[in-house]
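Agenda item 2: zinc ion complex prediction
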Amino acid sequence: MSSFAGRMKEYPNMSLDRFDRENLHARAYFLSHCHKDHMKGLKGPLLKRKLKFSLTVKLYCSFVTKELLLSNPKYAFWEDHIVALELESPTLITLIDEASGEREELVVTLLPAGHCPGSVMFLVEGAQGTVLYTGDFRLAKGDASRIELLHSGSRVKDIKSVYLDSTFYDPRFYQIPSRETCLHAIRGLVQDWVSRSVYHTVWLNCKAAYGYEYLFTNLGDEFHTQIHVKSLDMFKKMPEILSHVTTDRATQIHACRHPKDEEFVPASRLPCGSSASDGTPLSIISIKPSTMWFGERTQRTKVIVRTGASSYRACFSFHSSYSEVRHLPAYLSVCLGLCLSASVCDTLLFFLFSDKRLPVLSPANQHLPQCHSYCKKLWGTLNDIFGIKSQLCSLIHRNLLELLFIGKISKLRDDMPATNTDTTHPGISDHIMKDKNCTSEFHKVSV
Ligand SMILES: [Zn+2]
Ligand SMILES: [Zn+2]
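Presented output:
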């Protein structure tokens, strides 16, 4: 979940992936991809009014993102204000202050982000130095070295800051199997099932968001079939995806969703209600692509785990793993501008609670003195963390962050006696997050 506030300290006149609040004053907008958490304010009435009276304000994105955005009528008012840019082709953009006429020139380059259709990173070069805004990305180690425009000649460009997707900047996700490994495993499971009979059907339980198309196109190719989806509208201008999906329910692979209930998980029926024409009941398995779920396992698991009689979880990530995220700024030799998902505190809480059981520890608990002393220490540390968390959107040097938190927390945790009580910590996340006005999504920690 992106919690980036929209502006980079080097170039505050441009807003990226955030379109409300102070971003309303931006001179140019940039959208890295079409996921809702990167589009806050994009269809807001204030921005709509600003566009009406502006001659110069544009939204820059990739061609695919433009198509995806305009396939939703709520964003149709952007049509005359979108400039789609080619990938890997540096473009001079002039930011103009419409009141004073002041101009600022930047060279912006879109780099492939490997996250979902149309997703890009923005490389910005100008008077304040070169910075990279990644948006959400999935790049394997070594991918950055193949991006020519991050280099000048044989050297890496001098990059001042990287604004990084930190969704899985969390040691629980130290390594996530590669996309190919995950696809290979899913392909094996599908093959084994659909080859049994024409009544054997697979339902891919994917969320309603872009990013799974990689799965559809590859499975479609492999099994010479099309995948049943709810609607083709968003793929209208993307022939390479369109040819692999269908609204015809007579197929053995479905990724449709229930029209009314997004959470609907059928046991013996498909969300679209499709059945065999001769009345034979279908044998259905569901495969739920997940990353978070795998990160939460304390034991190492396989890429595919059976979770019920006919349900499976398959590891699938369109975000980089912890080690991949760390690799990028290290490769570019820059400090880490941790700014997007601010999941560090969640990580720390996980560190604290992952395999040790604690007695009551709750912000609502007024009786801390009665708790064990390590509880008090812990509480103090949590306060430190959350005090600093509110500032996480600004740049924090990676080493400082680690020194401050990870060492401290690991030590506390090591000092803690393990207990076997079944006590949980009701509402800890909610309370702390509310107290600190934190807007980033908190992953519940169950103890
Ligand atoms: Zn995304
Ligand atoms: Zn279906």
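Discussion summary: Residues 228, 249, 254, 256, 270, 272, 274 surround zinc ion (ligand 2) (CB under 6 Å).
Owner for follow-up: CH.
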